[in-house]
Amino acid sequence: MHELTESDYDILHAMENIVDGIAAMWGEHTEVLLHCLDSRHPSIMKIANGHITGREVGAPITNIALVKLNEGKDVSDAYITKAPDGKMLRSLTTVIRNKQQQAIGLLCVNFNLDAPFQSMIHSLMPTIGTYCDHGVTAETFARNSDEMMHSSIENVREQVTSDSSIPPSKKSREIVTRLHDLGIFDLKDSAQIAAKGLDISIHTIYRYLREIRAN
């Protein structure tokens, strides 16, 4: 470890949202923390779900974290540890480096293997029903931008076509509106692809977009 610079801390602070993002993705049974490797005070600078190990910001780096740092792998293999109260944890440590390739921090994930199964599943599921109920377009895992646009257009077209609350005369405009809200029309050639996929003229697409953007 060495004394960190201001630019090193800028990198670590930029990682703080990642801690919250991983914790939000995997739920309350996953502890995520960011260790600062400043030689003056190596400690936790950000933690989510600290109730799993009872730690908070300012707690010192663990002996296992130091072992993983010295193993020479930037992403460790998963390993098993125990929390102070005896909980079994599946853990993983990632080394964060600056542009000089010096280790400046560790991103650590600890999953509580002793959490009740139903509670684990519940922590992963709470928002899925919400998205499905409101008909949000399914995420498209496309191999290129054209495929992504075609898939998004088809998904939205099917949603709007099957929605009997939307009058037939309004369906094309509603499709364009939803595609606009998804950011599809920020992509190159999207208007042409949408016009072909929806079987309407590109001039109609542009007219709808002008009306939408004017509101």
TrEMBL record:
It holds the Pfam family PAS_6. Residues 153-210 form the Transcriptional regulator DauR-like HTH domain. It comes from the Bacteria. Residues 12-118 form the YheO-like domain. InterPro entries: DauR-like (IPR039446), DauR-like_HTH (IPR039445), YheO (IPR013559). This is Transcriptional regulator. It comes from Photobacterium iliopiscarium. The lineage of its organism: Bacteria, Pseudomonadati, Pseudomonadota, Gammaproteobacteria, Vibrionales.
